[in-house]
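User: What would this chain look like folded?
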Amino acid sequence: MEVKRDILWRVYLSYLGIVVLGLIILGRVFYIQHVEGNHWRSMADSLHQRYVEIDAERGTIYDAQGSMLSTSIPYFDVYVDFGADGLREKNGQRFKDNLDSLSECLSGLFGDESPAQYKKALQAGYKDKNRYFLLKRNISFAQYNTLHTFPLVRLGRNKSGFIDEVHEKRLNPYQLLANRVIGLARENVHNVGLEATYDSVLRGVTGKRLVRYIAGGTMVPVEGAEIDAENGKDVTTTLDVTIQDIAENALLQEMEKNEAVHGTCIVMEVKTGKIKAMANLGRQPDGTYWEDYNYAISVTEPGSTFKLATLMSLLEDHKITLSDHVNINGGFWNIDGRTVRDAEHDGNTDVTVKEAFEASSNVGMAKLAYGAYEQDPYPFINHLRYFHLDSVTGIDLSGEGRPVIKTPKSHSWSATTLPWMAFGYEVLVSPLQTLTLYNAVANNGTMMRPYLVDQIKDYGKVVKQNEPEVLRQKICSDATLNLIHQCLEGVLTDKVGTAKSLVSPLYRIAGKTGTALVADGPRGYAEHIYQSSFAGYFPADDPVYSCIVVIRNKPFAPVFLGAKVAGPVFKQVSDQLFALYTHKAPIQENWPAADSTQMHCAGNATDLSALFKDLGKSVSLSDTPGAWVIGSTRAVAPSKDTGRNAKVISAPGAGWNFTMVGVASEGSVPSVQGLGLRDALDVLEHKGLKVSTHGKGRVMAQSIPAGTVIKKGQTIYLQLG
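Assistant: Here's the prediction, encoded as structure tokens.
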């Protein structure tokens, strides 16, 4: 009995222990579920959910006229949650009712698969209860809008299960145009140009979205758990698309003709320092040209355009006068075992300082600087510093090269450094720095900081306005400035000037040519690679724009002088800008007073004759087939642009006077002033010209004067108003 009782006691005790343990477990389960439930559920969710970043909509970059230079285009990925309650309720009746019509619409929108294929894919996704079925990637905004009008999709996300994910692609509408200045179009990489410099402004503030991980590692957005992104601000630049196009086309034509390696053309507004154009082109392996590098802000030996700084220093220190004479030794001068050579020389020995500058004599400028500053180079170096040639311009663009101006303390300073510096060697400056100096000369001695961004806007509201900034109120005395103006104009007008071929009969240009022999890495100077340049401003009597062109030529290029390679680019730019923006039409004497009853018309003479006939006025406007005329109820004086071909046709019976326009000899540019755009295009394209326009209305000005010989593939720019 004792044994039996002992065994029962142990059994009861074990049973009681098990009951107590079970109660403890049940209590713990209850405690975990109801007391600590929220905590553990959040812990579980944290293992399957997380926040991901939502990129903000990147701001747009505009030119000065409001044209988009770089913008973000939204693209959409479309998914379907086949586990959505609204899609599966009532045994999926809503899905089944809309399946056929939806498949038809999807096939018609995307055109890549038949309705039957779309239906099969949707049915498979529904059967598998796929919570994140990929329907389509990278659909456009237009396709996105159309998609949301389709059966089922238009019912909304809860009932249709359709999920949209938006992402952006950066687009430069003008492609090549100012591509390097704006910034390369790389996905999520903005490391050059304005895209890099103003990245913090353009990119906005990143948002967040809660996503849930499902089978296969796919992330599904959790609806209602988002922190919206703050869109980026817009940037309005100082660039002008029309001027940029002019500069880029002029540069491209010359570089293609000479098979040049790379080049740049910069146009600056004289009074403000605003950069209106910055074209950069480099030759690609296949022989084409692209904006592959910003050569405008890269330092190099400038060559003879640097002589402006040398001459200004000498004049400011009263070391010389323009009428002083210098012996240029026929274009050769030996000093300390090295020879200074003139790029062009005719055997002359004795010339004035002014002639030495205008003829771009390396020997003349080297001798003058060496004679004046040999004992103490620092006054000359201090002038260069005062001209800001030893420091970056501070333009709002990343990657500006740092210049090098040597001093006697420099390790590479030698007995020949000073004379070589005088004509632009043994120094490193960028084309933009050189232009900033020339622009200061054009601006009555006031040096402006060049800049590229005019405004920053947030939803159309200006939040930052950049104003012109003065770097130096006066770079030299007025007396020196007047002498410099004479020399720069003399480069084009005097008989010894190196740029006589660039003279325009309509306006004056001031500038300086440059031809520098440059090294080619380890090969040195053996391949005779020249850098051609021209820097100047126009119109010389009242400068509006300054411009610099720098082109690096191929080895052993047959044409390499600055006036022959860079000069034509400058001339083409200045001619077109003069016609479009700076030309002021002369005030005509005895011009009739404004009359609200005065009427105007312009167009094809045959069409206008027919119109007058319908109005009961028999008028024979021209006996020239295809003639174009402009008429007024007031007397019409022949425009200067029509030249000797102008012809006034009087039609007193109708009360009208007409002037023939568009009249030009075969192979020459006609005048289209006064015509509507459609008529002007008819006239010009018939002549084989490419036409680019700016503005709205009738033709107010044309970039190529009437009577100019047409060149193949030439572009003419029309100002409408």
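The two ends are 125 Å apart (CA to CA). If you want, I can go into more detail on any region.
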